[in-house]
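Task: sequence in, structure out. Protein: Bacterial bifunctional deaminase-reductase C-terminal domain-containing protein.
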Amino acid sequence: MSRPDDPHVEILTDSTGLREFYRDAPFGVRANMIFSADGAAAFAGRAGPLSCPADQRLLVELRGYADVVLVGAGTARAEGYGPARLSEQQRAERAAEGRSPLPRIAVVSRTGRLPESLFTDPRQRPILITSAHAARRYGLRPDSRHEVVLAGDESVDLRAAVETLTDAGMGRILCEGGPTLLNDMVTAGLLKELCVTTAPKLAGTQPVGAATISTLLTPGALSLRHVLVHEQFLFSRYALAG
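Result:
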């Protein structure tokens, strides 16, 4: 049911309706994050305690529209990331569009430490994105378990990483955080769209990651696409203004 005084707001009684509001995935980086009502991105080191079934459904739906899922190594380890899983309907839609059956999982890491849960399906090799310095220091190289992408010399250059993924046919990139990777994406000016779930929960101060202070001179402007309400959770979608 839409509110006539605000076309951006819609109340959903069924979370299955979420997917149609996100179908037109942008070419570039779309980020998806969850925050508590008081601004925490995690609780006890994980985003899971803030989430709900509708938020989990949205995560899977957004993956269905992406060519690759990009995540920081800390988040991948904390959340126990594994190979992507999609429904038969999602797979059929992707096949009809001439796309790969599943999105790749790409992990940004300074050390190459990936969770073992990512290697449970040998048919889905994760992509490790790291720097040339880290590759030399930790002996990181492609093997039967994962692909390695070098982006940057001393530290990971996200712009180079995005260009490499795009050149490889993975132009629709879903960034799932955590906060450190989101901060780096924003600072690098790479974000095209931001999807935010606001949980009706209080989490207090919850330090997550090791993000540095942003170098932005002014806050970046966003344009609101919609706000969906389902069981007191807010699902907001913003596009880069202009």
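Helices lie at 53-64, 73-79, 88-96, 132-138, 158-167, 179-187.
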